[in-house]
């Protein structure tokens, strides 16, 4: 399999500049997602045209005009019942789902949006570092009521696919994972919910500790959501070196060596609430960080400073921190 590798020029990871970095693309054979990974800004990757996705309804799904029963998400797969038959994989092609959305107005205007599954394919083994078995990718189309047409729900990812991965939870505007018995998420592969899934942090896996929280933590890291408030501080496609401290048979993502990749510096340690602490270089690179979230992150030189340049220093602030990253830093 060939993945597109993004080579970033003059990258400033976590910086708040509006201008996107210049990029070029090169194809390399055999590239996998271990170690060096790409950050992003979008949580779900869904094309919502000014609306925020709240989640897809488990109830009300139909196939060929008939209602589906006991719709559920089982280990990255949409499963349902119809006429006493359990539907798996490509059996759900043609199924229609209703999603709940909210406008960005204050107060928000609630809406329902119709989606349909037009194709189902197996996930590539190259996105399965735990070797726990391939799950499924769903091609979705969104109904546009203004024109009476259907459009692709997801943008194209680095493989050129416009696909989504189902997960049995939702995420709110603050980036918080929300358990729900009525809603689920179709996460486009261009969004960080799916990125973290593909990095190996599948929430249903056992034996690695609490991968539900680790996957949630990963979505904070993947968006450089330092404050844990849903605000991203990175550019799409920014390279980071990601690793975790999961118990055996972990780690799922390894650091990859004794030294950082050339040009990268330690950035932060992470938990479900955002960054546990930031490196001294990261603090010094942006003087706006000091006032960003003082209730969580405190600049060097102040009482209670949260400064870390090693994994061990992160664990000194939070012994339960599970994820860490290095990034390029352009001063």
Structural summary, described in words:
This protein has helices at 192-198, 211-222, 280-285, 311-317; strands at residues 2-9, 22-29, 36-38, 51-57, 62-63, 66-67, 69-73, 78-82, 85-87, 95-103, 110-122, 136-144, 149-152, 164-167, 170-171, 177-178, 183-188, 239-244, 264-271, 274-278, 323-328. Residues 1-35 have low confidence and may be disordered. It contains four helices and 21 strands. The chain is globular and about 65 Å long.
Features:
331 residues; mainly beta; nine-stranded antiparallel β-sheet; five-stranded antiparallel β-sheet; 4 helices; 10% helix; globular; disordered N terminus
Calculate the mean pLDDT score and round it: 85
Count of separate structural domains: 1
User: Radius of gyration, rounded?
Assistant: 20 Å
What is the molecular shape?
Answer: globular
Helical segment count: 4
Question: In brief, what are we looking at here?
Answer:
The protein is built from four helices and 21 strands. It has 331 residues and is mainly beta.
């Amino acid at each position: 399999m060939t993945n597109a590798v993004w080579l970033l020029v003059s990258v400033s990871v976590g910086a708040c500049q509006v201008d996107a970095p210049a990029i070029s693309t090169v194809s390399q054979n055999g590239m996998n997602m271990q170690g060096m990974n790409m950050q992003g800004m979008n949580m779900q990757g869904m094309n919502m045209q000014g609306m925020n996705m709240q989640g897809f309804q488990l109830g009300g799904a139909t196939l060929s005009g008939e209602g589906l029963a006991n719709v559920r998400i089982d280990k990255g797969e949409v499963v349902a019942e119809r006429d006493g038959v359990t539907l798996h994989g490509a059996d759900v092609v043609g199924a229609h789902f209703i999603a709940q959305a909210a406008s960005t107005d204050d107060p928000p205007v609630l809406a329902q949006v119709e989606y349909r599954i037009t194709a189902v394919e197996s996930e590539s083994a190259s996105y399965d570092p735990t070797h726990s078995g391939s799950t499924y990718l769903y091609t979705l189309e969104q109904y546009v009521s203004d024109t009476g047409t259907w459009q692709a729900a997801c943008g194209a990812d680095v493989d050129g696919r416009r696909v989504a991965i189902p997960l049995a939870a939702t995420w709110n505007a603050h980036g918080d994972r929300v358990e729900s018995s009525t809603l689920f998420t179709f996460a486009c592969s261009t969004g960080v919910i799916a990125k973290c899934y593909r990095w190996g942090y599948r929430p249903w896996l056992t034996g690695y500790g609490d991968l539900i929280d680790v996957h949630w933590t990963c979505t904070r890291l993947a968006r450089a959501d330092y404050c844990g408030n849903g605000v991203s501080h990175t550019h799409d496609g920014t390279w980071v070196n990601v690793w975790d401290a999961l118990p055996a048979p972990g780690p799922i993502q390894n650091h990859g060596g004794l030294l950082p990749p050339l040009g990268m510096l330690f950035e932060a340690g992470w938990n479900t609430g955002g960054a546990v602490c930031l490196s001294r270089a990261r603090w010094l690179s942006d003087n706006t960080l000091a006032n960003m979230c003082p209730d969580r992150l405190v600049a060097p030189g102040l009482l209670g400073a949260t400064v870390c340049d090693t994994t061990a220093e992160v664990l000194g602030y939070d012994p339960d921190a599970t994820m860490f990253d290095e990034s390029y830093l352009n001063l």
